[in-house]
Design a protein that fits this description.
There is one protein chain. By secondary structure, the chain is α/β, with parallel strands linked by helices. The protein has 2 domains: 5-65 and 100-242 and 461-489, Rossmann fold; 252-457, Rossmann fold (3-Layer(aba) Sandwich). Helix content is 46%, strand content 13%. It contains 21 helices and 15 strands. The protein has a 7-stranded parallel sheet with strand order 3-2-1-4-5-8-9, with helices on both faces. It has a 6-stranded parallel sheet with strand order 12-11-10-13-14-15, sandwiched between helices. Bound molecules: uridine-5'-diphosphate. The site of uridine-5'-diphosphate has 20 residues, from α1, α16 and α17.
Length: 496
Protein backbone atom coordinates (compact mmCIF):
# COMPACT_ATOMS: atom_id res chain seq x y z
CA UNK A 1 0.00 0.00 0.00
CA UNK A 2 1.39 3.47 -0.85
CA UNK A 3 1.68 6.12 1.84
CA UNK A 4 -1.38 8.33 2.00
CA UNK A 5 -0.81 12.02 1.46
CA UNK A 6 -3.47 14.34 2.83
CA UNK A 7 -3.63 17.93 1.56
CA UNK A 8 -5.36 20.30 3.97
CA UNK A 9 -6.98 23.60 3.06
CA UNK A 10 -7.90 25.58 6.19
CA UNK A 11 -9.85 28.85 6.02
CA UNK A 12 -7.68 31.77 7.14
CA UNK A 13 -9.13 32.39 10.57
CA UNK A 14 -7.85 31.09 13.88
CA UNK A 15 -11.12 29.29 14.64
CA UNK A 16 -10.58 27.24 11.45
CA UNK A 17 -6.76 27.10 11.22
CA UNK A 18 -6.20 25.92 14.80
CA UNK A 19 -8.32 22.74 14.60
CA UNK A 20 -7.02 21.96 11.08
CA UNK A 21 -3.43 22.07 12.33
CA UNK A 22 -4.45 19.73 15.15
CA UNK A 23 -6.12 17.45 12.57
CA UNK A 24 -2.91 17.54 10.49
CA UNK A 25 -0.92 16.22 13.44
CA UNK A 26 -3.53 13.58 14.30
CA UNK A 27 -3.53 12.28 10.72
CA UNK A 28 0.28 12.34 10.57
CA UNK A 29 0.42 10.39 13.83
CA UNK A 30 -1.23 7.55 11.88
CA UNK A 31 1.71 7.41 9.46
CA UNK A 32 0.30 9.57 6.65
CA UNK A 33 2.04 12.50 4.96
CA UNK A 34 0.32 15.83 5.41
CA UNK A 35 0.64 19.08 3.49
CA UNK A 36 -1.12 22.18 4.75
CA UNK A 37 -1.60 24.84 2.08
CA UNK A 38 -2.02 28.36 3.39
CA UNK A 39 -0.74 31.91 3.01
CA UNK A 40 2.48 33.45 4.41
CA UNK A 41 0.98 35.32 7.39
CA UNK A 42 -1.03 32.27 8.45
CA UNK A 43 1.90 29.91 7.88
CA UNK A 44 4.08 32.09 10.12
CA UNK A 45 1.63 31.73 12.99
CA UNK A 46 1.84 27.95 12.80
CA UNK A 47 5.53 27.41 11.99
CA UNK A 48 6.58 26.80 15.63
CA UNK A 49 4.00 24.04 16.17
CA UNK A 50 4.74 22.41 12.81
CA UNK A 51 8.50 22.56 13.46
CA UNK A 52 7.95 20.75 16.77
CA UNK A 53 5.76 18.16 15.02
CA UNK A 54 8.48 17.55 12.40
CA UNK A 55 11.06 17.16 15.20
CA UNK A 56 8.75 14.50 16.61
CA UNK A 57 9.04 12.61 13.31
CA UNK A 58 5.67 13.59 11.85
CA UNK A 59 5.62 14.02 8.07
CA UNK A 60 4.01 17.44 7.86
CA UNK A 61 4.83 20.40 5.67
CA UNK A 62 3.38 23.89 5.45
CA UNK A 63 3.31 25.25 1.90
CA UNK A 64 2.65 28.90 1.19
CA UNK A 65 0.69 30.58 -1.56
CA UNK A 66 0.57 34.35 -1.98
CA UNK A 67 -2.96 35.70 -1.84
CA UNK A 68 -3.77 38.07 -4.73
CA UNK A 69 -4.94 40.70 -2.24
CA UNK A 70 -4.51 43.71 -4.53
CA UNK A 71 -6.64 42.00 -7.22
CA UNK A 72 -9.62 42.07 -4.85
CA UNK A 73 -8.85 45.50 -3.39
CA UNK A 74 -7.44 44.39 -0.02
CA UNK A 75 -4.29 45.97 1.43
CA UNK A 76 -1.16 43.90 2.03
CA UNK A 77 -1.23 41.76 5.18
CA UNK A 78 -5.02 41.30 5.27
CA UNK A 79 -4.61 37.54 5.13
CA UNK A 80 -6.72 36.38 8.05
CA UNK A 81 -10.23 37.31 9.09
CA UNK A 82 -9.00 38.54 12.48
CA UNK A 83 -6.66 41.02 10.73
CA UNK A 84 -9.42 42.60 8.66
CA UNK A 85 -10.83 45.61 10.50
CA UNK A 86 -14.18 45.72 8.78
CA UNK A 87 -16.47 42.75 8.23
CA UNK A 88 -17.84 43.91 4.86
CA UNK A 89 -14.33 43.18 3.52
CA UNK A 90 -14.65 39.50 4.48
CA UNK A 91 -16.13 38.59 1.09
CA UNK A 92 -13.03 40.03 -0.58
CA UNK A 93 -10.84 37.65 1.37
CA UNK A 94 -13.04 34.73 0.29
CA UNK A 95 -12.72 35.97 -3.30
CA UNK A 96 -8.91 36.16 -3.01
CA UNK A 97 -8.83 32.65 -1.51
CA UNK A 98 -10.84 31.25 -4.42
CA UNK A 99 -8.16 32.65 -6.76
CA UNK A 100 -5.68 30.25 -5.16
CA UNK A 101 -7.24 27.38 -7.08
CA UNK A 102 -4.82 27.48 -10.00
CA UNK A 103 -1.59 27.95 -8.01
CA UNK A 104 -2.79 25.24 -5.60
CA UNK A 105 -3.30 22.91 -8.54
CA UNK A 106 0.31 23.48 -9.66
CA UNK A 107 1.49 22.89 -6.12
CA UNK A 108 -0.44 19.63 -5.75
CA UNK A 109 0.92 18.45 -9.11
CA UNK A 110 4.45 18.58 -7.64
CA UNK A 111 3.74 16.72 -4.40
CA UNK A 112 5.72 13.59 -3.55
CA UNK A 113 4.25 11.16 -2.70
CA UNK A 114 1.29 12.28 -4.80
CA UNK A 115 -1.77 13.70 -3.08
CA UNK A 116 -4.28 11.03 -2.16
CA UNK A 117 -6.98 13.02 -0.36
CA UNK A 118 -8.02 16.62 0.25
CA UNK A 119 -9.45 17.74 3.57
CA UNK A 120 -10.94 21.13 2.86
CA UNK A 121 -12.76 23.62 5.01
CA UNK A 122 -16.34 23.48 3.76
CA UNK A 123 -16.14 27.27 3.21
CA UNK A 124 -13.71 26.60 0.31
CA UNK A 125 -16.05 25.04 -2.27
CA UNK A 126 -13.44 25.60 -5.03
CA UNK A 127 -11.29 22.76 -3.66
CA UNK A 128 -13.90 20.42 -5.14
CA UNK A 129 -12.47 21.21 -8.62
CA UNK A 130 -9.00 20.27 -7.39
CA UNK A 131 -10.23 16.91 -6.10
CA UNK A 132 -11.89 16.27 -9.47
CA UNK A 133 -8.80 17.32 -11.36
CA UNK A 134 -6.60 14.83 -9.46
CA UNK A 135 -9.43 12.33 -9.09
CA UNK A 136 -8.88 11.96 -5.36
CA UNK A 137 -11.40 11.95 -2.50
CA UNK A 138 -12.31 15.22 -0.84
CA UNK A 139 -13.51 15.34 2.75
CA UNK A 140 -14.92 18.51 4.15
CA UNK A 141 -14.17 19.87 7.58
CA UNK A 142 -17.18 21.42 9.30
CA UNK A 143 -16.17 24.04 11.87
CA UNK A 144 -19.05 23.60 14.38
CA UNK A 145 -20.33 20.42 15.99
CA UNK A 146 -23.08 18.11 14.70
CA UNK A 147 -25.87 19.65 16.83
CA UNK A 148 -25.26 23.07 15.34
CA UNK A 149 -24.85 21.81 11.79
CA UNK A 150 -28.02 19.80 12.00
CA UNK A 151 -29.92 22.78 13.43
CA UNK A 152 -28.63 24.96 10.58
CA UNK A 153 -29.72 22.30 8.10
CA UNK A 154 -33.18 22.03 9.66
CA UNK A 155 -33.60 25.81 9.82
CA UNK A 156 -32.69 26.18 6.16
CA UNK A 157 -35.23 23.54 5.24
CA UNK A 158 -38.02 24.73 7.52
CA UNK A 159 -39.75 27.18 5.27
CA UNK A 160 -42.87 27.46 7.38
CA UNK A 161 -40.90 29.45 9.94
CA UNK A 162 -40.33 32.22 7.42
CA UNK A 163 -44.05 32.69 7.07
CA UNK A 164 -45.05 32.12 10.67
CA UNK A 165 -42.76 34.15 12.86
CA UNK A 166 -41.08 37.53 12.96
CA UNK A 167 -37.29 37.85 13.43
CA UNK A 168 -37.54 38.17 17.20
CA UNK A 169 -40.27 35.60 17.95
CA UNK A 170 -39.20 32.28 19.47
CA UNK A 171 -40.19 29.00 17.82
CA UNK A 172 -39.33 25.38 18.62
CA UNK A 173 -36.95 23.69 16.20
CA UNK A 174 -38.73 20.60 14.82
CA UNK A 175 -37.33 17.07 14.39
CA UNK A 176 -34.86 16.88 17.28
CA UNK A 177 -35.19 15.31 20.74
CA UNK A 178 -34.17 18.42 22.72
CA UNK A 179 -36.51 21.36 23.07
CA UNK A 180 -34.61 24.15 21.33
CA UNK A 181 -36.31 27.52 21.20
CA UNK A 182 -34.82 29.98 18.77
CA UNK A 183 -35.59 33.21 17.03
CA UNK A 184 -35.20 33.37 13.27
CA UNK A 185 -32.32 35.80 13.73
CA UNK A 186 -30.50 33.39 16.07
CA UNK A 187 -31.06 30.45 13.75
CA UNK A 188 -29.75 32.24 10.70
CA UNK A 189 -27.18 34.66 12.07
CA UNK A 190 -24.44 33.02 9.97
CA UNK A 191 -25.83 34.80 6.92
CA UNK A 192 -28.66 36.91 5.65
CA UNK A 193 -30.69 34.43 3.65
CA UNK A 194 -32.41 37.10 1.65
CA UNK A 195 -29.21 38.56 0.19
CA UNK A 196 -28.57 37.26 -3.32
CA UNK A 197 -24.79 37.01 -2.89
CA UNK A 198 -25.15 35.07 0.36
CA UNK A 199 -27.73 32.73 -1.16
CA UNK A 200 -25.47 32.02 -4.13
CA UNK A 201 -22.52 31.33 -1.85
CA UNK A 202 -24.64 28.96 0.27
CA UNK A 203 -25.72 27.15 -2.88
CA UNK A 204 -22.08 26.65 -3.98
CA UNK A 205 -21.27 25.34 -0.50
CA UNK A 206 -24.20 22.95 -0.67
CA UNK A 207 -23.14 21.59 -4.07
CA UNK A 208 -19.52 21.11 -3.02
CA UNK A 209 -20.67 19.49 0.21
CA UNK A 210 -22.99 17.13 -1.66
CA UNK A 211 -20.13 16.07 -3.93
CA UNK A 212 -17.75 15.41 -1.03
CA UNK A 213 -16.75 11.96 0.19
CA UNK A 214 -17.54 12.59 3.83
CA UNK A 215 -17.61 15.09 6.66
CA UNK A 216 -14.97 15.50 9.35
CA UNK A 217 -16.20 17.09 12.58
CA UNK A 218 -14.32 18.31 15.62
CA UNK A 219 -16.54 16.60 18.18
CA UNK A 220 -16.94 13.20 19.82
CA UNK A 221 -19.82 10.79 19.51
CA UNK A 222 -20.62 10.50 23.22
CA UNK A 223 -21.21 14.25 23.36
CA UNK A 224 -24.03 14.34 20.82
CA UNK A 225 -24.96 10.82 19.64
CA UNK A 226 -28.36 11.73 18.21
CA UNK A 227 -26.95 14.69 16.33
CA UNK A 228 -24.02 12.77 14.82
CA UNK A 229 -26.47 10.25 13.39
CA UNK A 230 -28.97 12.96 12.46
CA UNK A 231 -26.35 14.95 10.54
CA UNK A 232 -25.18 11.85 8.65
CA UNK A 233 -28.79 11.09 7.68
CA UNK A 234 -29.65 14.68 6.76
CA UNK A 235 -26.58 15.02 4.55
CA UNK A 236 -26.53 11.36 3.36
CA UNK A 237 -22.82 11.31 4.15
CA UNK A 238 -20.37 9.57 6.39
CA UNK A 239 -19.65 11.78 9.40
CA UNK A 240 -16.40 11.19 11.27
CA UNK A 241 -16.15 12.82 14.69
CA UNK A 242 -12.44 12.83 15.47
CA UNK A 243 -12.18 15.30 18.36
CA UNK A 244 -11.81 17.10 20.61
CA UNK A 245 -8.74 17.72 18.48
CA UNK A 246 -7.27 20.23 20.95
CA UNK A 247 -6.53 17.25 23.21
CA UNK A 248 -3.65 16.27 20.91
CA UNK A 249 -1.69 19.13 22.50
CA UNK A 250 0.24 17.63 25.38
CA UNK A 251 3.53 19.54 25.80
CA UNK A 252 3.73 22.97 27.43
CA UNK A 253 4.76 24.77 24.20
CA UNK A 254 1.94 23.11 22.23
CA UNK A 255 -0.63 23.96 24.89
CA UNK A 256 0.58 27.52 25.26
CA UNK A 257 1.12 28.50 21.66
CA UNK A 258 -1.92 27.78 19.53
CA UNK A 259 -2.74 30.05 16.65
CA UNK A 260 -0.72 33.12 17.61
CA UNK A 261 2.10 34.48 19.72
CA UNK A 262 0.80 34.74 23.26
CA UNK A 263 0.73 38.05 25.12
CA UNK A 264 1.59 36.57 28.51
CA UNK A 265 4.58 34.45 29.49
CA UNK A 266 3.25 30.93 29.97
CA UNK A 267 5.42 30.28 33.03
CA UNK A 268 4.17 33.45 34.72
CA UNK A 269 0.63 32.49 33.82
CA UNK A 270 1.07 29.02 35.33
CA UNK A 271 2.69 30.51 38.43
CA UNK A 272 -0.26 32.82 38.95
CA UNK A 273 -2.77 30.02 38.41
CA UNK A 274 -0.75 27.78 40.74
CA UNK A 275 -1.24 30.33 43.51
CA UNK A 276 -5.05 30.16 43.27
CA UNK A 277 -7.42 27.68 44.85
CA UNK A 278 -8.74 24.78 42.80
CA UNK A 279 -11.74 25.78 40.67
CA UNK A 280 -11.71 29.37 41.91
CA UNK A 281 -10.79 31.34 38.75
CA UNK A 282 -13.03 32.48 35.91
CA UNK A 283 -11.45 32.80 32.47
CA UNK A 284 -12.93 35.46 30.19
CA UNK A 285 -12.27 35.27 26.47
CA UNK A 286 -14.56 36.23 23.61
CA UNK A 287 -12.68 34.58 20.75
CA UNK A 288 -10.52 35.80 17.92
CA UNK A 289 -13.03 37.85 15.93
CA UNK A 290 -15.52 39.52 18.24
CA UNK A 291 -14.91 43.07 19.30
CA UNK A 292 -16.21 44.93 22.32
CA UNK A 293 -17.04 48.63 22.48
CA UNK A 294 -15.43 50.82 25.13
CA UNK A 295 -18.77 50.93 26.89
CA UNK A 296 -19.04 47.14 26.88
CA UNK A 297 -15.51 46.64 28.19
CA UNK A 298 -16.26 49.07 31.03
CA UNK A 299 -19.36 47.05 31.95
CA UNK A 300 -17.37 43.83 31.79
CA UNK A 301 -14.57 45.29 33.92
CA UNK A 302 -17.06 46.53 36.51
CA UNK A 303 -18.86 43.19 36.55
CA UNK A 304 -15.62 41.30 37.13
CA UNK A 305 -14.60 43.74 39.86
CA UNK A 306 -17.95 43.50 41.65
CA UNK A 307 -18.05 39.70 41.55
CA UNK A 308 -14.98 39.41 43.76
CA UNK A 309 -14.00 36.22 41.92
CA UNK A 310 -10.38 35.74 40.71
CA UNK A 311 -10.16 36.15 36.93
CA UNK A 312 -8.01 36.13 33.82
CA UNK A 313 -9.46 38.48 31.25
CA UNK A 314 -8.29 38.23 27.67
CA UNK A 315 -8.76 41.75 26.38
CA UNK A 316 -8.60 42.05 22.62
CA UNK A 317 -8.38 45.35 20.73
CA UNK A 318 -8.99 47.70 23.70
CA UNK A 319 -9.63 51.24 22.54
CA UNK A 320 -7.48 54.15 23.72
CA UNK A 321 -10.56 55.44 25.51
CA UNK A 322 -10.86 52.21 27.44
CA UNK A 323 -7.15 52.18 28.36
CA UNK A 324 -7.68 55.71 29.67
CA UNK A 325 -10.63 54.53 31.75
CA UNK A 326 -8.53 51.72 33.24
CA UNK A 327 -5.87 54.22 34.32
CA UNK A 328 -8.28 56.83 35.66
CA UNK A 329 -10.13 54.21 37.64
CA UNK A 330 -6.90 52.65 38.91
CA UNK A 331 -8.57 49.41 37.81
CA UNK A 332 -5.55 47.13 37.53
CA UNK A 333 -4.18 48.31 40.87
CA UNK A 334 -7.56 47.65 42.50
CA UNK A 335 -7.91 44.10 41.21
CA UNK A 336 -4.22 43.18 41.20
CA UNK A 337 -4.57 40.62 44.00
CA UNK A 338 -7.09 38.58 42.09
CA UNK A 339 -7.22 39.64 38.45
CA UNK A 340 -4.93 39.38 35.43
CA UNK A 341 -5.56 41.19 32.16
CA UNK A 342 -3.99 39.66 29.04
CA UNK A 343 -3.79 42.29 26.29
CA UNK A 344 -3.78 40.22 23.11
CA UNK A 345 -3.64 36.48 22.53
CA UNK A 346 -4.08 34.25 25.59
CA UNK A 347 -2.85 30.65 25.95
CA UNK A 348 -6.49 29.57 26.19
CA UNK A 349 -6.10 25.80 26.27
CA UNK A 350 -3.27 26.01 28.80
CA UNK A 351 -5.41 28.20 31.05
CA UNK A 352 -8.58 26.14 30.70
CA UNK A 353 -6.76 22.92 31.47
CA UNK A 354 -5.38 24.28 34.77
CA UNK A 355 -7.14 23.03 37.88
CA UNK A 356 -7.45 26.55 39.30
CA UNK A 357 -9.96 27.47 36.58
CA UNK A 358 -13.57 26.78 37.52
CA UNK A 359 -15.56 28.90 35.06
CA UNK A 360 -15.33 30.15 31.48
CA UNK A 361 -17.07 33.24 30.16
CA UNK A 362 -17.14 32.44 26.45
CA UNK A 363 -18.53 33.80 23.18
CA UNK A 364 -19.46 30.17 22.31
CA UNK A 365 -17.20 29.72 19.27
CA UNK A 366 -17.21 25.97 18.68
CA UNK A 367 -13.51 25.48 19.47
CA UNK A 368 -13.84 27.38 22.73
CA UNK A 369 -17.00 25.44 23.58
CA UNK A 370 -15.26 22.11 23.05
CA UNK A 371 -12.12 23.26 24.85
CA UNK A 372 -14.29 24.22 27.85
CA UNK A 373 -16.02 20.81 27.72
CA UNK A 374 -12.69 18.96 27.42
CA UNK A 375 -11.42 20.73 30.51
CA UNK A 376 -14.60 19.99 32.47
CA UNK A 377 -15.52 23.64 33.04
CA UNK A 378 -19.04 25.12 33.24
CA UNK A 379 -19.59 28.19 31.11
CA UNK A 380 -21.28 31.58 30.94
CA UNK A 381 -22.51 31.97 27.39
CA UNK A 382 -22.20 35.26 25.54
CA UNK A 383 -22.81 34.55 21.84
CA UNK A 384 -22.03 37.25 19.29
CA UNK A 385 -22.62 35.96 15.74
CA UNK A 386 -22.62 33.07 13.26
CA UNK A 387 -23.13 29.63 14.85
CA UNK A 388 -22.57 30.98 18.37
CA UNK A 389 -26.25 31.28 19.38
CA UNK A 390 -26.80 27.64 18.42
CA UNK A 391 -23.67 26.58 20.32
CA UNK A 392 -25.09 28.46 23.30
CA UNK A 393 -28.28 26.38 23.08
CA UNK A 394 -26.17 23.24 23.01
CA UNK A 395 -24.19 24.27 26.12
CA UNK A 396 -27.22 25.48 28.06
CA UNK A 397 -30.23 23.43 26.89
CA UNK A 398 -28.68 20.15 25.74
CA UNK A 399 -25.60 19.68 27.94
CA UNK A 400 -26.89 21.82 30.84
CA UNK A 401 -23.39 23.10 31.47
CA UNK A 402 -23.95 26.80 31.24
CA UNK A 403 -25.72 29.99 32.19
CA UNK A 404 -26.68 32.63 29.67
CA UNK A 405 -25.47 36.17 30.10
CA UNK A 406 -28.69 37.14 28.35
CA UNK A 407 -28.06 37.90 24.67
CA UNK A 408 -31.32 37.67 22.72
CA UNK A 409 -30.37 39.42 19.49
CA UNK A 410 -27.23 38.20 17.74
CA UNK A 411 -25.06 40.20 15.38
CA UNK A 412 -25.60 39.04 11.80
CA UNK A 413 -22.56 37.73 9.92
CA UNK A 414 -21.35 40.57 7.75
CA UNK A 415 -21.98 43.01 10.60
CA UNK A 416 -19.33 41.63 12.97
CA UNK A 417 -17.71 45.00 13.40
CA UNK A 418 -20.94 46.38 14.80
CA UNK A 419 -21.33 45.89 18.51
CA UNK A 420 -24.06 43.71 19.94
CA UNK A 421 -26.55 44.59 22.68
CA UNK A 422 -24.91 46.04 25.79
CA UNK A 423 -24.64 43.57 28.68
CA UNK A 424 -24.76 45.45 31.97
CA UNK A 425 -22.22 44.94 34.74
CA UNK A 426 -24.91 43.76 37.23
CA UNK A 427 -25.90 40.94 34.86
CA UNK A 428 -22.28 39.91 34.37
CA UNK A 429 -21.73 39.88 38.15
CA UNK A 430 -24.89 37.82 38.74
CA UNK A 431 -23.92 35.28 36.06
CA UNK A 432 -20.34 34.88 37.39
CA UNK A 433 -21.50 34.49 40.97
CA UNK A 434 -24.16 31.95 40.00
CA UNK A 435 -21.74 29.95 37.89
CA UNK A 436 -19.08 29.78 40.59
CA UNK A 437 -21.53 29.23 43.45
CA UNK A 438 -21.18 26.20 45.71
CA UNK A 439 -24.95 25.72 45.72
CA UNK A 440 -26.73 22.66 44.35
CA UNK A 441 -27.18 23.92 40.79
CA UNK A 442 -23.52 24.94 40.54
CA UNK A 443 -22.34 21.57 41.87
CA UNK A 444 -24.61 19.69 39.43
CA UNK A 445 -23.17 21.66 36.50
CA UNK A 446 -19.63 20.99 37.68
CA UNK A 447 -20.32 17.30 38.06
CA UNK A 448 -21.78 17.03 34.52
CA UNK A 449 -18.80 18.98 33.20
CA UNK A 450 -16.35 16.59 34.90
CA UNK A 451 -18.16 13.56 33.41
CA UNK A 452 -18.08 15.01 29.91
CA UNK A 453 -14.41 15.89 30.23
CA UNK A 454 -13.62 12.27 31.12
CA UNK A 455 -15.63 11.07 28.09
CA UNK A 456 -13.85 13.58 25.84
CA UNK A 457 -10.43 12.39 26.96
CA UNK A 458 -11.27 8.69 26.61
CA UNK A 459 -12.67 9.27 23.12
CA UNK A 460 -9.22 10.41 21.95
CA UNK A 461 -7.31 7.54 23.55
CA UNK A 462 -6.45 4.39 21.61
CA UNK A 463 -9.70 2.44 21.21
CA UNK A 464 -11.84 5.49 22.04
CA UNK A 465 -14.61 6.59 19.65
CA UNK A 466 -12.69 9.45 18.01
CA UNK A 467 -9.55 7.35 17.70
CA UNK A 468 -11.56 4.60 16.01
CA UNK A 469 -13.33 7.12 13.76
CA UNK A 470 -9.95 8.38 12.55
CA UNK A 471 -8.98 4.75 11.76
CA UNK A 472 -12.23 4.31 9.79
CA UNK A 473 -11.79 7.58 7.98
CA UNK A 474 -8.30 6.55 6.79
CA UNK A 475 -9.58 3.07 5.91
CA UNK A 476 -12.36 4.61 3.87
CA UNK A 477 -9.89 6.73 1.88
CA UNK A 478 -7.79 3.62 1.21
CA UNK A 479 -10.90 1.74 0.03
CA UNK A 480 -11.91 4.58 -2.30
CA UNK A 481 -8.40 4.73 -3.76
CA UNK A 482 -8.24 0.93 -4.12
CA UNK A 483 -11.58 0.90 -5.93
CA UNK A 484 -10.28 3.61 -8.26
CA UNK A 485 -7.05 1.73 -9.10
CA UNK A 486 -8.90 -1.57 -9.68
CA UNK A 487 -11.30 0.05 -12.13
CA UNK A 488 -8.42 1.88 -13.83
CA UNK A 489 -6.73 -1.50 -14.43
CA UNK A 490 -9.98 -2.54 -16.11
CA UNK A 491 -9.59 0.43 -18.41
CA UNK A 492 -12.44 2.34 -16.81
CA UNK A 493 -11.65 5.49 -14.90
CA UNK A 494 -13.75 5.59 -11.77
CA UNK A 495 -14.54 9.09 -10.64
CA UNK A 496 -14.35 9.63 -6.92
N1 LIG B 1 -7.81 31.39 21.20
C1 LIG B 1 -6.65 31.43 21.95
N2 LIG B 1 -6.34 32.61 22.57
C2 LIG B 1 -7.11 33.72 22.48
C3 LIG B 1 -8.29 33.66 21.70
C4 LIG B 1 -8.63 32.48 21.10
O1 LIG B 1 -5.92 30.45 22.06
O2 LIG B 1 -6.76 34.74 23.08
C5 LIG B 1 -8.14 30.14 20.48
C6 LIG B 1 -9.17 29.30 21.20
O3 LIG B 1 -8.54 28.43 22.10
C7 LIG B 1 -9.85 28.59 20.03
C8 LIG B 1 -9.74 29.58 18.88
O4 LIG B 1 -8.71 30.49 19.24
O5 LIG B 1 -9.15 27.42 19.71
C9 LIG B 1 -11.01 30.38 18.64
O6 LIG B 1 -11.95 29.59 18.00
P1 LIG B 1 -13.49 29.65 18.34
O7 LIG B 1 -14.17 28.68 17.44
O8 LIG B 1 -13.71 29.42 19.78
O9 LIG B 1 -13.95 31.12 18.06
P2 LIG B 1 -13.68 32.21 16.89
O10 LIG B 1 -12.46 32.95 17.30
O11 LIG B 1 -13.50 31.46 15.61
O12 LIG B 1 -14.89 33.06 16.94
Amino acid sequence: MTTLHFVLFPVMSQGHMIPMVDIARLVAQRGANVTIITTPVNANRFKPVITRAIKNNLNIQLLELELPLSDVGLPEGYESFDLIPSAPLFNKLFAAAAMLKEPAENMIQELVPPASCIISDNLFPWTYDLARKFNIPRLIFHGPGCFTYLCIHISLHTNFVDEMVSDSEYYVLPGIPDRIELTKAQASSWGKKEEKEATEFMETLREAEEASNGIVVNSFEELEPFYVEGLAKAKSKKVWCIGPVSLCNKSLPDLAERGNKVAINEHECLKWLGSREKGSVVFVCLGSLSRASTEQNIELGLGLEASNIPFIWCLRHPTEEFEKWLIEKGYEEKVKDRGVIVRGWAPQVLILSHQAVGGFLTHCGWNSTLEGISSGIPMITWPHFADQSLNERFIVDVLKLGLKVGIEVPIIVGDQDKFGALVKNEDIKIAIEALMSKEEGGEARRSRARDLSKMAKSSMEEGGSSYVNMTWMIQNINELLDAKSTTMEDGIVKEL
